Batch of 2 targets.
Target 1
Amino acid sequence: MDADRIPPHPDLDAITLQRVLEALVDPVRRSIVTQLCDSPADLKCGSFDLPVSNSTATHHFRILREAGLIRQYYVGTSRMNTLRRDELDRAFPGLFDAVITANRPTRMAGNGR
Amino acid sequence: MDADRIPPHPDLDAITLQRVLEALVDPVRRSIVTQLCDSPADLKCGSFDLPVSNSTATHHFRILREAGLIRQYYVGTSRMNTLRRDELDRAFPGLFDAVITANRPTRMAGNGR
């Protein structure tokens, strides 16, 4: 039943550098993946801190999902988001970390506290 | 005299992740920086293998220069190009290497031969 609501995701083989860069060139989308990266758990779409409307945010989540950066699934009525980090690291070693690090306003000496 | 012909370049402090990603999202511009990266010497604009007209190529060189990815200078009548690699690596550690590695059609086990 829930499978009907789960949107399509590209396989790892179909993830291209072009699509990944097109996704990451947008600052709102970089904010989404940075917040996901910094969160200890998967996040539902409504819980991100974003400077755009819900419908615009939905568009950005779709671009990220179709580029292969995030995976979406349902828990009840909430659409959850998780980073496809391991797959991205295999496809494009170092790229995700470099962008996320560069995207943070300050480079923290130590994370987690 | 030549100084009049040298186009403006942003200082390292003015190089932003946004501009760098906007530059690298274009496949022709990724090809330019990849060819520069793989060349043992600086290259003049006319010596790149690019699928676009000279005037379009000039546009792409300008975007790369204004984003801080390349430095241009003259030798005689030739406009030469060099990567600002050390500066980029300081500003955005790992980003340039990750994009260039991902951009190469095959991941070579060893470079240089």
Note: The longest helix of chain A spans residues 54-67.
Target 2
Amino acid sequence: MIQPIRICLVGAGRAARVHANSIANRLPQAELAAVVDPVADALQATADKFGVQNRFSTLEEALQGVDFDAVVITTPTFTHTALAVAAARAGKHVFMEKPMALNLHECDAILEATRANHVFLQLGFMRRFDPEFTEAARRIQAGQIGQPMMIKSLTHGPGLPPPWARDLTTSNGMLAEVNSHDWDTVRWLMGSDYERVYVEVANFKGQARGVDTPNFYDNVLVNIRFNNGGLGCITGVCPCDYGYDARVEIVGEKGILQIGELQGQAVIICTDRDQGLVTPIYRTWPERFAQGYILEMEHFVHSILVGTPPKVGGEEGRWAVAGVLAGTRSFLEERPVRLSEVLASVEAGS
Amino acid sequence: MIQPIRICLVGAGRAARVHANSIANRLPQAELAAVVDPVADALQATADKFGVQNRFSTLEEALQGVDFDAVVITTPTFTHTALAVAAARAGKHVFMEKPMALNLHECDAILEATRANHVFLQLGFMRRFDPEFTEAARRIQAGQIGQPMMIKSLTHGPGLPPPWARDLTTSNGMLAEVNSHDWDTVRWLMGSDYERVYVEVANFKGQARGVDTPNFYDNVLVNIRFNNGGLGCITGVCPCDYGYDARVEIVGEKGILQIGELQGQAVIICTDRDQGLVTPIYRTWPERFAQGYILEMEHFVHSILVGTPPKVGGEEGRWAVAGVLAGTRSFLEERPVRLSEVLASVEAGS
Amino acid sequence: MIQPIRICLVGAGRAARVHANSIANRLPQAELAAVVDPVADALQATADKFGVQNRFSTLEEALQGVDFDAVVITTPTFTHTALAVAAARAGKHVFMEKPMALNLHECDAILEATRANHVFLQLGFMRRFDPEFTEAARRIQAGQIGQPMMIKSLTHGPGLPPPWARDLTTSNGMLAEVNSHDWDTVRWLMGSDYERVYVEVANFKGQARGVDTPNFYDNVLVNIRFNNGGLGCITGVCPCDYGYDARVEIVGEKGILQIGELQGQAVIICTDRDQGLVTPIYRTWPERFAQGYILEMEHFVHSILVGTPPKVGGEEGRWAVAGVLAGTRSFLEERPVRLSEVLASVEAGS
Amino acid sequence: MIQPIRICLVGAGRAARVHANSIANRLPQAELAAVVDPVADALQATADKFGVQNRFSTLEEALQGVDFDAVVITTPTFTHTALAVAAARAGKHVFMEKPMALNLHECDAILEATRANHVFLQLGFMRRFDPEFTEAARRIQAGQIGQPMMIKSLTHGPGLPPPWARDLTTSNGMLAEVNSHDWDTVRWLMGSDYERVYVEVANFKGQARGVDTPNFYDNVLVNIRFNNGGLGCITGVCPCDYGYDARVEIVGEKGILQIGELQGQAVIICTDRDQGLVTPIYRTWPERFAQGYILEMEHFVHSILVGTPPKVGGEEGRWAVAGVLAGTRSFLEERPVRLSEVLASVEAGS
């Protein structure tokens, strides 16, 4: 029997548990080698839940204390670069959650470290593995709707993000923490890079939820022009309270294609004709993308086993970060922002 | 301008008001000439609502008191035959609600009177005019799903029928009063007559609603074999309380076709992720078949104006009654009943 | 019996025939008094189809030649002002198709003429009368989804608009000719006026369809900030080829609400498991808004009969024009445009 | 780490590969110990695909040749009893596909052998583990729709069954081979046993497909009366050609509940307004019940690991067989058949 790929979870929060579940309960070719988290409670809860004995408060300790093949990084974004670079330098393959990093310099550092150390880098863009998204991509790439002209992608999340994720001094806010998936999706399915973006934001619930962070917003509407002349729209609402909502609609020269729906299960009930039909909605992202989470981790494990690079890596992560940076600049400066501005600042070393 | 067809409403209840609305508010080529009802309150309410001055307690008075071209009969089933025959003999075209009559003798009397007096007879099978049913029929007849093999039709109504309609001594019960439409639909879309039927019934809510009529049932499940070898299923639930529900599903040699859905409007709302999505259901039959009711009356008026017979007449009504009679005998005698038994009893003069 | 409202159709094209059908075949309280069109073929075809004897090539002739109560104006936008003003001065009530006019000066001229002559003015925003839109508005206004935060409205039309409607020198292009309805809808349902707009456009099919008009676009993506802080998105695709598509999605503080769907009929068929389910789409706008077209005309007729102003008039039409003007300026100048710029230019007399 | 449960696949056909996939690729706590099949090609193909070295042509050889904990029996129904009894006597836990056996004597032999040898017996009623079915069951059992009054369950399968499965001398035909799931589902969700059944069958495609087996049918319509007075309807169509279709609808005293839908994925496309919307259908049963197949096997493995009996065992399998026997007798004898007739014949030793 093949020796399973040994994985060290770096981060023990909610996303970590989703990946741990895939590894421990659905992927015989992988196993949990260790869990790392500086927060003792989270570390213990997650390690206990999945029966992992090796527990560390830092990645450094884990690297010294136990043998493994790869890391799965689910810590806050501002810690990504140091952890990914350290793992890469230790020869570990890297699976990391989105957003890749805070800026393009960090993205480049990660890309460089993984390349230099000949390890794989996969970004947690699970929508690329969701059966509905992959079927849609297949149809688009087969030309079924012709050249895409306009694409809309939305992600609405139920709950308020953690403080660091809604503060523009410690993250890139909702555009990054919630909508990174949309940035990747629209570029993937349009088959073109962003040329310029214009963003409007709104803050409806912040005050009532006790958020007084400057520039906090809970609604965002992104208008994108792509290099190929296509148009894109990304929207984010978080907290939306009503459920987890991720849908895409693409109009091509020959037709329209929709991915996803609000309905979470084909169970319909009606007990009151004044209320009408009731059907479950997706409540959370692990529910909506249950298959995608397993399939992306299976892909990562399989990539390591067979030695071929994962199909969603650092370049995709870096483009999403670039979009976020242009978008944030747009709403702060109240003007359309070209990607060339954002990309030039890196090349110029700023 | 063409002189509008003048119509006398015979019956002033709920179905009468649906037809009155079509005539008064949606069909410029028709007008309400009179309303007839022995119940003074209903007569006044309906005549007032539609601004009709000519009001009578009997059809005979109406025939003597005012000039008109046609009657629309919506009275209880046990009154149908006398009214339809009287109208026909007076040279009035007849539109009558389902079920046509209580038995095949009565059906034959109506058929004979309308034929002998050269007036048109149209049955209120509005599903034959509903845009979804007609589109489905067009596709089936064009061979899109091949030869139909199995058809299921259901009608579930929200409220308890009136006492006369749930008593087998004054009506043929739910099989007739609710499911006449299904009897007509399955025969129409299968393109074949019933060969034999088997029926099971149940009574779940009768006692709690104070119904102690013998043989009352509020659930019925009909199993049909057609002459062409096809199979059919009719179900009725009344009172179902949850809304008005009328749907059909047909499996043909080449595929499946569904008609109708529970959803009454494309308005979807979600405000609670534990409850899920909510969308309106059809609450009542006038809502579900709003178009069908207008279109069937337009067809009747148009038939009179141009002098061609309506496309749904007494033969269709008579077949539905025959199915009901066989079905009722089936559950009373707990055995499958061939239509030939029911038809033979008429020919034999019994 | 009440004397029907006599209506003169001004314009004999496709929209005219939709309204003529409502008046002639579905609204007993109205009648077609005359048809006006300078194009002899269209005039004859429409007048013949609805049996109208009074036919004129100009409104002036109609005003002299026949008596009527109201006009229904469906001619190209650039003719709206002169016709509406002439009708108003002759004491005729005015129903006019969208967009109201080419600019705010024209809108003001129409508003002034109808007010001064005490006639009613109704804009052809039939979505305000569509049962799904009105049910949605009722729910929003009842607070079911809380304060709206983000609204998206789209209209995709199947075919290439006529030459005058795609040329910015003779119209305001797709933003006006296709998306006027969306401009009205988002303002209505958000319950707030536009503060600023940003627009991107694309031209994918123009060349292949032989359109070489400068600034022609067939895709448009509008980003709106409302005065109340809410966000709005309007998209237009025309020609989209795949059908007629008009849908709205609103996220409020308490939940989400969707209006409309792609599915045009609840008829589903499957005959090939590789192809999958097939269900009709709305093919054209008269199909999608069949009810809305009847109900808006019934409202106009009823308003005249009872003497109360229609609920969708010149102010709504003027706001839609203002949005269009700001949007067009935005994509031409590649910057967000505040409505105050557009409104100020009128007040300044420019 | 826990020692995985070692499983011997008995049968190497299509159902075997579905279970093998769960065990090999999705359930770390189980492993494939051996594959058994007398057909050398199937044996090799399946064992190769899942990398299983231990291959045998009979269960007896496997029992002697390799150590394992449990069998998964997917061979033709007429072999079930001997294999299950042999496995049980060897102390192996038994997971077996439906239908359990050909008659109640066989069912009793299996039940007795598993009880006597203290091994677990689980029937392959994967719908009991499908997330939509379990959510529906939870809601029904929580009283959301009140007492179920009428339940309809259908299974339509795309392709012609193998010869043995369509011949009443070697199987119980479609009622058993296709509709066993429905028999179990309606009893489970109604919460009551069958009292009597009436069945009609039809044969539309047999001749064209070269089937001349006596009593072959490709359409079946079952009418059930339950002991609690409720009604049930089961339909089967096989080959239906259009896809795999498994849906349930239950009407209770308080409302209606639907399980499942034709749509196989939330991907909708439209490229031709005359054709309309197209969306994938479930093509095969492994697609439709992908989750259910994993979850039922996880349940079996978990039951063994923790030592608690599986929740769907021999009693459920036996009741489904009893329904099938009554149903077959009904259409052969053209009369309703009480379950007591079928059950009595066993007790009487016939």
Note: Chain D touches chain B at residues 147, 149-150, 152, 156, 198, 200-205, 218-221, 223-225, 229-233, 235, 237, 240-242, 245, 251, 253-256, 258, 262, 334-336 (CB under 8 Å).
